[in-house]
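To the wet lab folks,

You asked to see what we're planning to order before we commit. Fair enough. Below is the target structure as tokens, and below that is the sequence we designed to fit it. If anything looks off to you, flag it before the synthesis order goes out.
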């Protein structure tokens, strides 16, 4: 329990053609077009050194199954680098919004192999699973929205905590995703992968939307843009309430707003954006199976009805770009004010048999940073070459606390610390075309971190510094017979909670010493994959990957956060498929199988708890223009070892979500979502740890603790475009 208190914690001048083809397809791996009618153009795209675009229209052609997405212009086109990997890609906003989802973060399940779930109230950050990782709330997946990092360092609830509940899916213009630590722009938290989400600069039509659904679901959204001066002003506002099926209603209340002013294009222009988000909720956390089996509570019951929280996020960000004969220069910056209070009780009466084990985690911070990069084209020994250099910075001024509470009333302070944490990174990359069938990228990234911890336990105060340098290598062979082969290698890392780096004693029991955690933990990854487009309309990719970590961050059930653990190795295979059957019908299917093991020997076992072996999804989308539209998605989340010796495992979860709707000629749309169509009695997530119910032995009972999937729910959405 002691150490768990410190959780580790163009480029030829672009034509826009290749990116717009991706918008048609909905999913565009880098360097790819789409076959059949565009086959010749697709081959031309593969022959280009890099893929960029003037700010593309994000609506695109192709199947669309959404009542509220209106399309428009997004600035992400100017941000795309020539990243070549079989597992990397771009998803259009139209494709992302065609998925029926339960919560905003689930929109990211459009990334192949990514599972997004929840183990608590709807205002809390999601749980993520990818490539054999239980990523907790974001420990090894780097998330960005509009150039701003979502992951929080030295967070009160867990290192890398990434709350995406402020996301407005209808505003998403495009999603750029990478897997593995192979890309120079990706640093902290990006070992398993990274996802960059960009909002629209303008919308093609204004939108007013309202949704009503089961379990008290209500949502209203409005988005509008209009010319202003030499640019455009975009305004969006959202309000939502939700109780859920829980015996103790979530009573989620959420307010969200975005204001953006933009001028020019993604390659020559700028944008300024303000965002504001606030939410509060009750929480039904995971519950022990024995409490349900013994009839103490029902499947949707709670053992502490006062769990819950509140959070707020307010940001100002901007981006600027300019293209000249000397190359493309991009710059972005942000400042964010963030606050959160969480009240959780995971062990009930294990630590305090009188008052209970509820605790409050408080996080209050201001963070700021930015990125500047310059890309220039040229030749070397007659060969086309593109060089990029970039600089990234980030500084967090944090107040973070942990308090023992009963019914949200503070009984005692465990810690109340102030942390100033800063980082800077320099990266360079050279991308070269050697022949018509050989391209390479060679890069290096250097990161430096510093932290100053001022703890209310003086022995835990101190300063820390660390740095890491990682190579990034890529090779592309082909295309031959509509097939390309990709080879990637790179190093990555995640930072640990700065408090664990400087601490020497347990703040709850200062007489007990604890071991310090390393500041930066390295990872090494590699993959080989191929992508084929032989069949008109079908793009399929197969990737073999491996990732080694010097220290795994594992979830700890006693406090719901993460702490450093043993070294690990993962290897596996991914198979992704996108099939544009007709302009109005598309199919997709993905499968990821992973072997995750601790790399050292220990009698307790070598299985990585919560590491998923199998993740799969399949679905279809139909609809084009006025008339009927629809979609259906199956998501399979395979069984997982819950402890190191594999003697306790979770059950698999298979969920089906569906949507059907109609677009009228006058701009009105009506759609019905059916979530958990088969009413599966499954678990969103399962843990195994020790807790104590009233009347049980003092040392508690080791048990599965689960958070159930919501039963079948319907949501009706009426939207007007004008």
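Sequence we intend to order:
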């Amino acid at each position: 329990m002691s150490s768990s208190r410190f959780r580790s914690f163009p480029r030829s001048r672009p034509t826009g053609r290749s990116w717009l083809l991706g918008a048609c397809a909905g999913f565009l791996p880098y360097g790819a077009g789409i076959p059949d009618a565009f086959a010749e153009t697709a081959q031309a795209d593969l022959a280009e050194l890099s893929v960029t675009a003037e700010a593309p229209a994000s609506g695109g052609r192709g199947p669309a199954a959404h009542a509220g997405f209106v399309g428009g212009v997004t600035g992400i086109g100017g941000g795309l680098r020539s990243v070549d990997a079989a597992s990397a890609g771009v998803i259009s906003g139209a494709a992302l919004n065609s998925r029926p989802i339960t919560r905003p973060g689930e929109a990211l399940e459009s990334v192949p192999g990514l599972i997004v779930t929840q183990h608590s109230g709807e205002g809390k950050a999601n749980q993520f699973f990818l490539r054999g990782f239980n990523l907790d709330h974001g420990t090894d997946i780097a998330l960005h929205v509009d150039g701003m990092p979502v992951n929080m360092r030295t967070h009160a609830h867990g290192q890398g905590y990434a709350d995406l509940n402020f996301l407005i899916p209808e505003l998403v213009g495009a999603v750029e995703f990478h897997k593995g630590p192979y890309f120079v722009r990706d640093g902290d938290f990006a070992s398993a992968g990274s996802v960059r989400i960009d909002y629209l600069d303008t919308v093609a039509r204004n939108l007013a939307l309202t949704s009503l659904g089961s379990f008290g679901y209500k949502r209203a959204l409005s988005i509008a843009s209009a010319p202003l001066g030499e640019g455009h002003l975009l305004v969006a506002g959202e309000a939502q309430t939700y109780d859920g099926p829980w015996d103790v209603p979530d009573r989620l209340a959420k307010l969200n707003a975005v204001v953006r002013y933009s001028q020019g294009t993604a390659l020559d222009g700028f944008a300024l954006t303000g965002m504001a988000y606030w939410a509060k909720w009750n929480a039904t956390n995971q519950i022990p199976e024995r409490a349900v089996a013994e009839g103490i509570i029902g499947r949707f019951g709670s053992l502490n009805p006062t769990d819950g929280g509140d959070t707020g996020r307010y940001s100002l960000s901007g981006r600027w770009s300019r293209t000249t004969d000397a190359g493309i220069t991009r710059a972005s910056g942000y400042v964010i004010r963030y606050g959160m209070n969480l009240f959780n009780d995971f062990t009930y009466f294990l630590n305090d048999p009188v008052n209970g084990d509820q605790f409050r985690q408080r996080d209050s911070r201001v963070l700021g940073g930015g990125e500047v990069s310059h890309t220039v084209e040229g030749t070397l020994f007659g060969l086309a070459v593109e060089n990029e250099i970039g600089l990234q910075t980030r500084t967090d001024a944090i107040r973070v606390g942990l308090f023992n509470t009963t019914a949200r009333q503070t009984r005692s302070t465990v810690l109340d610390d102030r942390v100033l944490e800063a980082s800077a990174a320099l990266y360079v990359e050279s991308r070269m075309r050697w022949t018509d069938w050989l391209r390479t990228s060679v890069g290096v990234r250097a990161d430096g971190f510093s932290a100053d911890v001022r703890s209310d336990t003086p022995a835990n105060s101190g300063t820390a510094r660390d740095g890491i340098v990682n190579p990034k290598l890529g090779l592309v062979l082909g295309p031959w017979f509509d097939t390309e082969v990709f080879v990637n290698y790179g190093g990555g890392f995640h930072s640990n909670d700065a408090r664990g780096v400087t601490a020497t004693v347990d703040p709850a029991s200062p007489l007990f010493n604890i071991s310090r955690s390393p500041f930066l933990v390295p990872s090494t990854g590699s993959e080989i994959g191929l992508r084929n487009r032989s069949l008109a309309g079908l793009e399929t990719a197969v990737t073999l990957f491996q990732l080694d970590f010097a220290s795994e961050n594992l979830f700890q059930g006693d406090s719901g956060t993460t702490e450093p653990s043993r070294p690990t190795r993962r290897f596996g295979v991914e198979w992704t498929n996108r099939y544009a059957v007709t302009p109005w019908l598309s199919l997709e299917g993905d499968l990821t199988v992973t072997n995750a093991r601790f790399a050292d020997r220990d009698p307790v076992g070598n299985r990585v708890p919560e590491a998923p072996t199998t993740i799969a999804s399949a679905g279809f989308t139909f609809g084009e223009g006025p008339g009927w539209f629809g979609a259906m998605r199956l998501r399979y989340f395979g069984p997982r070892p819950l402890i190191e010796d594999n003697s306790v495992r979770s059950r698999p979860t298979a969920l089906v979500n569906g949507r059907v709707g109609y677009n009228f000629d006058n701009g009105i749309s009506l759609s019905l979502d059916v979530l958990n169509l088969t009413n599966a009695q499954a678990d969103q997530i399962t843990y195994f740890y020790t807790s104590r119910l009233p009347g049980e032995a003092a040392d508690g009972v080791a048990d599965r603790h689960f958070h159930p999937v919501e039963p079948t729910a319907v949501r009706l959405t009426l939207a007007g475009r004008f």
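Structural context that might help your review: Residues 17-25 form the longest helix (9 residues). The first strand starts at residue 27 and ends at 28.

Thanks,
Computational group
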